[in-house]
Amino acid sequence: MAHLEWSDALNLDLPLMDDTHREFVDLLAAVDQAGDADLLSRWRTLVEHTEQHFGQEDDWMSSTRFASGNCHSMQHKVVLQVMREGTARAEQGDLQVLRVMASELALWFPQHAQSMDASLALHLRRVGFDPATGVVHAPGALPGALIHGCGGTTCSDSDAPGADESTAHPATAPAVPA
C-alpha cells in the first residue's frame, strides 16, 4: 500500500494552503496507521478535514474568477464523493475499502497538489490574494473571463478561460473498490 509523508515537494509557498495540506497528510497517515477499532473514526476525521480543505480552495477560486465547474473544483467534488462512499461501505463493515482508498489518496494527492494546487497558488499570488482575509490586492490582475480549466499551463486549450465547460478535463479520483 502507498504511504504519503510531507516533503518539500508538496510545499507551494502559500502558508495557509501548505498548512492545510500538511494536516491532510498527517490525517491520512493517521488513517494508514489505524487499527480496525479506530479506522472509521480516523477516516471520518479525514473526510471532515477534506470537506473544509476543498471548500476553502473552492472559495478562493470563486473569489478569483474560476468558474464553478472548473476541473479543479470538479475533482474536489469527485474525490469527496468517493470518500463518502468509502465511509458508507465501512459503516456496513467493509473496513478494507478505507485502507485501499487511503493508499489511493496517497498516490493521488501529490499529483493534485503539484499540478492543480500549484497552479492555484501561483494564480493567487499573481492577483495578490490574501487567503486569510479573502482580499484581492491586485484586482487588475484578475482574468477577464472565468477560468474553466485548472488555471495552469498544463491544461489543454479547451480549458482556457472562456472555453465551454463540457470540454474541460474529466475529474480523476481514487477508485472505489468493488
Automatic annotation (TrEMBL):
Biased composition (Low complexity): 168-178
UniProt protein name: Hemerythrin
Keywords: Iron, Metal-binding
Lineage of the species this protein comes from: Bacteria, Pseudomonadati, Pseudomonadota, Betaproteobacteria, Burkholderiales
Domain Hemerythrin-like: 16-118
PANTHER family referenced in this protein's UniProt entry, alphabetically: BACTERIOHEMERYTHRIN
Iron keyword on record: yes
Protein family (similarity comment): Belongs to the hemerythrin family.
InterPro entries, per the entry: Hemerythrin, Hemerythrin-like, Hemerythrin-like_sf, Hemerythrin_metal-bd
Region (Disordered): 157-178
